[in-house]
Amino acid sequence: MLLFNSRDDEYKVIVLVRQDIKMSKGKTAAQVAHAAVACALAAKKREPGVFEEWNGNGGKIVALKVDDERMLFEFKAIADEQRIVNSVISDAGRTEVNPGTCTCLGIGPEKQTLLDKITGELKML
Amino acid sequence: MLLFNSRDDEYKVIVLVRQDIKMSKGKTAAQVAHAAVACALAAKKREPGVFEEWNGNGGKIVALKVDDERMLFEFKAIADEQRIVNSVISDAGRTEVNPGTCTCLGIGPEKQTLLDKITGELKML
Questions:
Q1: Which residue of A has its CA nearest to B59?
Q2: Under DSSP, is residue B97 helix (H, G, I), strand (E, B) or coil?
Q3: Is the pTM value of this prediction over 0.90?
Q4: B125 inside domain
Q5: CATH classification of the domain holding B55
Q6: Interface contact flag, A25 B25, Cβ < 8 Å
């Protein structure tokens, strides 16, 4: 029995997206993609077993809303404290937002049950 | 002089997103992220030099619109013909779309100039 493959305990990557900056659908998608790529590569290097379990089971990715930069970094602090792979994405600022603007935070791959304890209150994007 | 680092000739990943299926902003972002991760991992394996140039220079990702599945696969055929790394994302269908629905196509990382020749007519998402 592969416990990690059950719905409750599968691995996922969550990406927290700031709602206080205005981004188009495409820009948002690209920023979330940056976060997912950064998390995937970091996990592949640091925790190859976790990476394989996540990626081999569909590589679930979920985008969630955070109010602002402060809230984003509060979640980063929690992820750091719990030693969960995470990556803040700051934009080069060629389009839409100012250079260096932190747009989103990727967390994981980590078990769904653990991530839901941390960010379970956040709404889906 | 690092030619690949110039604005005209940098590497990028483009993700073509079907406009004939209805997806929320978050769902769209997650699908684009899947495509970017798949392309990044495939390039890292098959073309590590290209991957490093792309990822080391900000890992540009751009989301573009395609009308429907047929158009998506026409672009896939062109990418295959030109041997450009590409990945069709089909959704597990737990939410919003039917299981197995092809939602988007990631192409690259490849040089901007080449990709623009292929998909230059497509609008930004």
A1: A34
A2: coil
A3: yes
A4: no
A5: 3.40.1490.10
A6: yes
The DSSP bridge pattern shows strands A11-18 and A60-66 to be parallel
- Please state the domain count of chain A: 1
Considering the domain boundaries, does residue A16 fall inside one? yes
Q: What stretches in chain B show pLDDT beneath 70? A: 1-8
Fill in the amino acid letter for B99.
P
Residue spans of beta strands (DSSP E) within chain B: 11-18, 61-66, 86-90, 102-111
Q: How buried is B56 (Cβ within 10 angstroms: 0-12 exposed, 13-18 middle, 19+ buried)?
A: exposed
Distance from C-alpha of A34 to C-alpha of A40, rounded to nearest angstrom: 10
φ/ψ of residue B22, rounded to 5: -90, 120
- Whether B25 has its CB under 8 Å from any CB of chain A: the answer is yes
- Please give the pLDDT value at position A4: 47
What count of other Cβ atoms lies within 10 Å of the Cβ of residue A98?
Answer: 8
